Every structure is written in C-alpha cells, then in structure tokens.
Automatic annotation (TrEMBL):
Alphabetized UniProt keyword annotations: Cell membrane, Electron transport, Heme, Iron, Membrane, Metal-binding, Repeat, Signal, Transport
Cited InterPro entries: Cyt_c-like_dom (IPR009056), Cyt_c-like_dom_sf (IPR036909), Cyt_C_IC (IPR008168), Cytochrome_c-type_DH (IPR051459), Membr-bd_ADH_cyt_c (IPR014353)
Residues involved in heme c 2 binding: 209, 212-213
SUPFAM superfamilies registered for this protein in UniProt: Cytochrome c
UniProt-recorded name of the protein: Cytochrome c, mono-and diheme variants
Length: 446
C-alpha cells in the first residue's frame, strides 16, 4: 500500500512534538549536547586525518633531513649546505612565531614552498628545492602545513648564511630564477596510467629526486640531463635513468623497490651517506603502492649514458672473490713506502675480512641486514672510488623498518695513506680496478 509522503512527515512531526512535551528539558539538552559532540568528533577526525596525511607527505618530501640539525629539535633548521660560494643554513620550520613559521599564513607558506619567496618578499636560495616543489598541489602543501603545526615549537634562529659577494645579494636570485626556474603545477599525462602519473609526481615533485641525481650547470641550476647522476660534495649520486651500463636499466622492479624501502638491493647496492638518510627519513615510510609507482616512472625517463666512463658493464657487475685463503694467510707483512703503511692485503685482512668475509662475498646472504658483499656492489664497481672512500672514512648508519644497519668509521683508526691503500686494494680485487684514490684526496675528503 502506498503512503503519502507529506502525510507521513506531518505525523512524524506531531509525534516528535508530543515527545518534546513529555521529555524533561534536561534530556533534550543532553540529546543536543550528544549531537554537538558527534559533530565535533567528526571535525576532529577530519583534522586528524589531514595531519596524518601531512605527516606522510612531509616524509615523502624528506623535509626533516634538510631542516633538522639536532634530532632533539626536529624541524628547527640549522643544517649547513656547503656550496662552492659559501654556506647556506636551513630555516626553522617549527610553529614558533618568532623564529619559525608560526606567523605565516597559508598563502605565505605556499609561496615559500612553491615559488621560493619569503613572507617579506625576499627570494629563497635554491637549497630549498622549490624548483621541484613548484609542482605540488595546494592540498598537499596545506596538509604538510597542518602536520608542521603539530610539531613542538623551537625558539631558535638558524645561523646566518656565509656567502660572499655577489651571492649574498638575494635580489640577484631574480636573474637565477629567470634561467633556472619554471613555476608550474604537475599536469597528469592522460596518455599514461594513473600509476605512472603518481610515480612522476612522487619522483619529480615530492621526493624531488632530480635535485641530487641531476648534473648542475655553472649557475648551480639543474641541467637537462635529468637523473643522470651528480656530485654532492664528496659523494656521487649515481645515474638512475634506465641506461643499462651507467644507470639502473639492469635492475628489476623488485630490486628498485627493495632499495628504496630497505636501502639494500642484494647483488646491486647498499645505501650509504645521503642516500641512507633518504631511506631512513623518507622512502622506508612510503606505501608499497607508491614505491611501485616510482619504479614504474623511473623505467620510462630518457636513458642517459653519463657516468659509464667507457665501462662495458654496469657498476654492480664487477668483481671476483679471492680464490685461495693462502692469498691472505701465512704471508709476510709487506710495508709500503717510507711511512710504513701495510699493504692492502694486510689492511683488508685486519679491518674488513671479519665482516665482509675473507673472499669479500659478505655474510648473511640476501637478508636486508646482511654484511654486504664487496662483489657486485655499485660503490666498489664505480668508475671512481669516492663513495667507497667516504664509506671507509665515515662508516654507514641506516635505520630501516627491520633494524639499524651500521658499519664503523675508520677515519680515526687509519691514516690517509692506509685508507687509500685499502680502498685501492678493494677496488682492484673486488671491483673496478680503474677506480683508485690518492692519500692527498683522502685527506681532503675527511
């Protein structure tokens, strides 16, 4: 039987009116309070969801790495960026209203992140990667801002930059931007999959991989050789284009994802230095779906041969194990040079063999926490010994989702000559024999 909707609503109102006469006022007040509480809880839940999303995005963008010099004061700035023309220090981005970003409006914050402009109109230096963040959406930037509002404020000013003339003239950044900065939001490619577009956004905008892995021009702007590898001080950020010799064309998707998540691709590479920090602070927190999207996108960028340096095989394809234990044991100690430096074989046996194995094949197999093999290792098979030298000097510290991976630093144990001798033995025996280093260069890298 059909019921007239208007009549039904009228009856419902009448019944509710009668109920109002019968219910005590206190009960009605309580029902109103309950309804208000539900509305507040819904709003609070939305805020919590926004903050959680902002935390995820801030990790994807690795904000903490550049804005934290003291782990006890996260996001309080003060991280030095040593450039050819001086040192720049990162800013405090805690909610402190004097030294941080507590007084910035949302529009001010978006302008700083995406356009490289401070509240007072000054241009930011491109140590802040606004050249990549310009692609970010409003929603993502404001989600990050919502998360940063929950950080404990730190009343601490960042150290003053120490740049020489004319680089200390911020107005000159107008001309730098003219040649090196194109403002614009990410535009999805309708001809590509949603996964590809997500990967392009993550790699190019949020994770800003090109800021480390792309060679720079004479003005320190990004060149057109995107992701072809670059020098970061004493570290080399390797070529991550699909080139099979210079880049990662020989890596599987599973290996790329494992490296981003754990810092380890067995038989390929182990993250150290700046990349270990990226894994620790950023990529290990990304979802499997986002890591897969990044791998999908990286497969499609234009391949670049920069970094091959005439090699006929990729960095991870070098090396053979020591075949006989007698090559290490029961041999007379050979001392090199007037300084009395032991030969590389002796230094390796004394300092490396206990963890990496006397054959150099590592201990622990393919486990993410294994002591890595020195064979088929990108740092040992590279065309220069810079990264290997930095690892020997400063060790490795990499926090992952499965534990803390560490290697001791030998800077305080071995002299420049000893480290050079050891590194040259390791590259010759286990990697690319053309990669050598001098004691003088080791001294400069300390």
């Amino acid at each position: 039987m059909k019921t007239n909707n208007t009549t039904t609503r009228q009856r419902q109102r009448q019944r509710f009116g009668a109920l109002r006469k019968w219910l005590p006022a206190s009960a009605l007040a309580l029902s109103g309070l309950f309804a208000g509480t539900l509305a507040y809880a819904a709003g609070d839940s939305a805020d919590a969801a926004l903050v959680k999303r902002g935390e995820y995005l801030a990790r994807a963008a690795d904000c903490i790495a550049c804005h934290t010099s003291n782990k006890a004061q996260p996001y309080a700035g003060g991280v030095p960026f040593d450039l050819p023309f001086g040192t720049i220090y990162s800013t405090n981005i805690t909610p402190d209203k004097t030294y941080g970003i507590g007084n910035l409006s949302d529009a001010d914050f978006i302008s700083a992140v995406r356009e490289g402009k401070s509240k007072d109109g000054k241009r930011l230096y491109p140590a802040m990667p606004y050249t990549s963040y310009t692609q970010l959406t409003d929603d993502d930037i404001l989600a990050i801002r919502a998360y940063l509002r929950t950080i404990a404020p730190v009343a601490k000013a960042a150290p003053a930059n120490t740049l020489g003339f004319p680089f200390n003239q911020r107005w000159a950044m107008v001309f730098w931007n003219l040649f090196n900065f194109d403002s614009g939001r990410f535009e999805p490619d309708p001809a590509k999959s949603a996964e590809w577009n997500r990967g392009a956004y993550l790699v190019g905008a949020l994770a800003h991989c090109q800021e480390c892995h792309t060679p720079r021009n004479f003005m320190q702007g990004l060149s057109d050789k995107s992701l072809a590898g670059a020098q970061l001080g004493n570290w080399t950020a390797y070529n991550i284009t699909p080139d099979r010799i210079a880049g990662i064309g020989g890596w599987s998707d599973a290996e790329l994802i494992a490296y981003l998540r754990d810092g380890v691709a067995p038989g390929k590479a182990n993250a150290a230095g700046p990349m270990a920090e990226v894994v620790e602070n950023s990529t290990r927190f990304l979802s499997d779906r986002d890591l897969e999207a990044m791998a999908t996108y990286l497969r499609t960028v234009p391949a670049q041969s920069i970094g091959a340096n005439g090699a006929n095989r990729p960095r991870y394809a070098w090396g053979s194990p020591i075949q006989s234990v007698t090559a290490l044991r029961n041999q007379p100690l050979t001392v090199l040079g007037a300084g009395g430096v032991a030969d590389g074989r002796t230094l390796f046996n004394a300092n490396c063999a206990s963890c990496h194995g006397w054959q150099g094949t590592g201990v622990g197999g393919k486990d993410s926490g294994a002591y890595p093999s020195l064979l088929h290792n990108t740092s040992v098979g590279a065309s220069n010994a810079d990264n290997l030298t930095m690892v020997v000097l400063h060790g490795v510290s990499r926090q992952t989702n499965t534990g803390h991976m560490a290697m001791p630093a030998f800077a305080g144990e071995l002299s420049d000559s000893e480290i050079a001798t050891l590194v040259n033995f390791v590259t010759t025996q286990f990697g690319n024999p053309s990669a050598t280093i001098t004691a003088d260069k080791v001294g400069k890298m300390r």
